[in-house]
TrEMBL record:
This is Nitroreductase domain-containing protein. The lineage of its organism: Bacteria, Bacillati, Actinomycetota, Actinomycetes, Mycobacteriales. It comes from the Bacteria. GO terms for molecular function: oxidoreductase activity. InterPro entries: Nitroreductase, Nitroreductase-like. Residues 256-373 form the Nitroreductase domain. It comes from Nocardia mangyaensis. Signal peptide: none annotated.
Length: 390
């Protein structure tokens, strides 16, 4: 497909798929197996479940994980869905290094194909959720030495923006029955980009500054304990006790503040709305419209509104990108604090911002909410629905 902008589709575009060039497949062994298992435990799938340890707008997970071994400039792809590490034939990737640099690389198109340009915002918020969990790796086991040289020598081999980087220590060598090593004859381990994805990259702003995630020490509230159990609630039942709810939200915000400081990220505005004592302000009167018609979300006891300044020009610069990543960091800290206390929680991006701006200080725009309360059963429409929630 040479130009999606000027030429109609041709017959060969339909019948000639670009097949991945697989040279070899084998079980994954060596110390790198320990590293991918640690990453999987934080942001991958749990056991046989297709659900991931981190939430994502519309379950699109718009980023990739790459590993770089210190001795080489080659990168491998960590495919968290198929549980495979993809290396290039002839690269001689070292599977037995003491530690690896781990890169979180954005793929905004995966979210933009569902949500349009707003998908670029979601990919940074989703990235922030994942960065928070990756930062928990250094809470449990600090990385060796100073965090220099995280990016591969031949940085141009990475396709996409590096949103975050950090060094991860390898444990003892182990072979993983679940993970395999795939060697590809393709020029890049990050294959599978369509012409649409390349086009979306062209309209995206310049890359944000990468967040270094391996320098985070202890965080208040021990959020690492809740990573495995985290889920988004399908719907909410009102009536979660006010005092515990206040404590849950306060503990999540405290943890987020510490993480943002250690990750060197700016702090977005955070305001609690609801009818209980936890709330600073009341939610909008027409709650259903404010939630973009998502009736499964109206029963929450509190909505934590995360906002950013509206003032200034229209440029998407480093500071603004940092605030969007920070919104995801705050979101993940709240998810884990709620999970630890048995409260139901869901991130909400499909909102009418004008309705929520009224509960924020003047000059702030609502971006993202975290609903907290009592859980009720229900389907997670956001993941099932192929269309956009806004
Ligand atoms: C940035 C962001 C926006 C989201 N927006 C909504 C939303 O508007 N409505 C909703 O029901 N869920 C929303 N979610 C939750 C996702 O649907 C959920 O994370 C995804 O379906 C995966 O399910 P899980 O979190 O239970 O693993 C959002 C999550 C994120 C991170």
């Amino acid at each position: 497909m040479h130009s999606i902008a000027t030429a109609p589709m041709a017959w060969k575009d339909l019948i000639d798929p670009v097949a991945p060039q697989i040279a070899r497949m084998e079980p994954l062994g060596g110390r790198v197996a320990g590293v991918v298992t640690r990453i999987e435990e934080m942001i991958g799938r749990g056991g046989a479940s297709s659900l991931r340890r981190v939430p994502s707008a519309g379950a699109t997970y718009p980023y990739e994980i790459l590993l770089v071994s210190p001795a080489s400039t080659s990168v491998v792809l960590v495919d968290l869905v198929r549980r495979q590490v993809v290396a290039r034939a002839g690269d001689c990737f070292d599977v037995d290094a003491d530690s690896y640099a781990c890169l979180l690389v954005g793929r905004p198109w995966l979210s933009m194909r569902k949500y349009g340009p707003r998908g670029y915002l979601y990919h940074l918020i989703d990235g922030g959720h994942a960065i928070f969990d990756l930062a928990l790796l250094s809470v449990t086991e600090p990385p060796p030495g100073p965090g220099t040289g995280l990016l591969p020598g031949s940085h141009d081999t990475v396709i996409g923006d590096v949103l975050a980087a950090g060094r991860i220590t390898a444990g003892a060598p182990r072979s993983s029955s679940r993970w395999r090593l795939v060697t590809t004859a393709d020029a890049h381990v990050q294959s599978g980009r369509t012409a649409f994805e390349k086009w979306a990259t062209r309209i995206s702003p310049p890359a944000p500054a990468p967040v270094v995630f391996d320098r985070v020490g202890n965080l208040p509230g021990q959020p690492e304990r809740a990573v495995t159990a985290r889920r988004s609630a399908g719907s909410f039942t009102p009536g979660y006790d006010t005092e515990p709810l206040r404590r849950v939200i306060a503990s999540g915000v405290r943890c987020a503040d510490s993480a943002l400081e250690q990750l060197n990220l700016p702090r977005p505005v955070v305001q609690v709305t609801g009818h209980g004592a936890a709330a600073v302000t009341r939610p909008p009167t027409d709650l259903l419209a404010a939630l973009g018609g998502q009736d499964h979300l109206i029963g929450a006891d509190a909505y934590v509104v995360i906002g950013v300044p509206t003032r200034g020009d229209d440029t998407i610069d480093h500071r603004r990108q940092g605030l969007l990543i920070a919104a995801g960091v705050v979101g993940q800290a709240l998810y884990l604090a709620a999970t630890e206390s048995g409260a139901a929680v869901t991130g909400i991006g499909g909102i009418d911002p004008s309705a929520w701006n009224r509960v924020l200080p003047a000059g702030q725009q609502a971006l993202y909410l975290i609903a907290v309360g009592g859980s009720a059963d229900g389907e997670k429409f956001d993941a099932l629905h192929p269309g956009s929630h806004g």
